[in-house]
Structure formats: C-alpha cells, structure tokens
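Translate sequence into structure tokens.
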Amino acid sequence: MSTAFEPLDLAGTKLANRIVMSPMTRSRAYDTVPTPVMAEYYAQRASAGLIITEGIQPSAVGQGYPHTPGLHTDEQVAGWRVVTDAVHEAGGRIFAQLMHSGRIGHPSLLPGDLHPVGASPVRAAGQLYTGEGMTELVTPVELGPADVEATIADFAAAARRAVDAGFDGIELHGANGYLLHQFLADNTNLRDDEWGGSVENRIRFTVEVVRATAEAIGGARVGLRISPFNRYNDIAEETTAELYPALVDAIEPFGLAYLHIGEAGDRALTLELRERFSGVLILNPHTPDGVTGPDHLSLLDEGVADAVSFGALFLANPDLPARLANGGPFNTPDQSTFFGGAEQGYTDYPALTSVNA
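Result follows.
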C-alpha cells in the first residue's frame, strides 16, 4: 500500500491520509458570506487528509474575484462555522487559505471607494471578469509603510477569525501572483524602502505575515503556499533560485504546520527547499500536460514530499482517496467549470491546472 494512505501528523493536527485537496476558487459566496452549498461541497470531500479552502480575502480590499468569501466580518465567521462543522462531522480536517489578491482585482468588485492595492503601482497585463464581462486590470495603489503594517495586521485578524470559525488552521497564499507573491517578485516590487529591492527586503512582507499569523494562532496552525518560477498573473522572477531558499530559511523558526509548493517546472528547487524546511512538505506537482493524478502518489513513496495536493481531480471525484486506493475509476474533470463555470466568465482559466491542480 502506498504511503499516501498512511496517517500524517501536521504539527499536531492528525490527518487520516496524505491526500490533500488543493485550494480552488469556486465563487459561490453570497455577498462574501459562505453559503450552504459550500458546506455541502466541502463535506463531500472530507475524506481528504486535509482540505485547503478556496482563497478567502482577509480584508475587503483583498477581494479579487466576484462571489468569493471573506474572513473579516462576524457574518462571514458564522457562515464558515457551518462549513467547518459539516467537514468535522464528516471526519475531515480543513484549513482556510487566506488570499489577498493585491493588484489582481477591480474597483467594481470592492465596496465604497476602495481600489486594488499592490507592492508597487504596476498594472498586471490582462483582463478580469467582474460580473459585467471581461474588464482590463487597473494600476494598483502602492501600499505605504503604514498600509503595509495594517495589511499584516489584517492577516493576523483573519487568522484569529478562522480559528473562531472552527478551522483547524490557515494557509497563507504566497503564490500565483497575488499580494504576497507581488512583494516577492522583481517585476511587481519596485520599492526602495525596507519592503523592496534586495532579496532580504522582498521576502520581508511574507515573513512578517507569517510571523504575525503564527503569533496570533500558533505556528502549528499556519501553512504557507509558494509557487517558484510561476509566471501566472504577469509575474516575473529574476532571482528565484536565491529568493525561495532565503524565504524558507527565514520562516523556519516559526514552526509552521507545512510548506505547500506549487511546482512550475523545477524539481531541483523543490528538493532543495525540502532539505531546508524541517516541517511537512505538501507538493502540488508540475503537470504541464494535464492534472495531478494517481501516478503522482509515487512522489510520496520516493520521499519527494510528505503529502500531495490534488485540484481538478477532486472536483470531479469527491471521494478521491477511495478511488485512488482502488485504482479508479475516475471521473474526468470538466475544466470549463474549473473556476466557477462559463456562466461566470472563467472559461479562460483552465491553464491554471498546471500550477493549482
């Protein structure tokens, strides 16, 4: 039997197996509040060793897509409590992925006069679905020093709310071109203050968000997702090989629950980061020609990772661990609905399956 079906101790959180449900945007919230269909959806997949939710904005300005949920109001906490109760009643474990979209957003998605923010005022190439069709992305407002500190505090507050909502922990989304990644990357962080310039300064924001959330709820309840070499959302990294080892070394003292790597093609860097990180490594392997599948369980037996995350295959197969154990059969994912369905304009997003599936 593959090690995939052995239990895993996630810094004190006991997982029944090493098959993880990857975070995937579904756009099923109502006015940023989780809905009953979301509780049903996650409970159906509770046989995963760990469920990592869709991206959840830690503040109102952190929303990047229509109908996505937040964790910054009491009403949202109450809505998430229904979800976590359903998952726990079904025997599952669930972490909330905190995702601030940064420059990937649009004013029409935000309340009042809020405007998307970023590490620097650099507009991302491309368009975004806003509910009124595809719309050009806008130039973000650069976060000033006080705004940076306030955003770090927003993450810490959202982490505390996640615990109040019954989550077993949180995952910080430092991948796929969203705010933490925007501070890490050369082309989106043009700052000349303590938050930009050198590798040490560009990792500082992510490190401080990790520190703040670990202090808020304990490092054993915090995971971090990264995606070295990933160019999604118009990201360009010139110092990847130096950047990520420095980042992993900097977060090592916090005793995190796990490091979650979304590979974008470089296994050698994955192996280096595994050596540097003493905790659990979850791997979303590079799959340029498809989605993460049964063959990737061999990565666990080979010791490349401690757990493997599956995205699209979990959408099509809610009982995925049982199907993996039995060798199938597997339903084929309908990638036209990978990010919420054609009716919401997301049919251009299936390319993400190579980095988030």
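Note: The longest helix spans residues 145-164.
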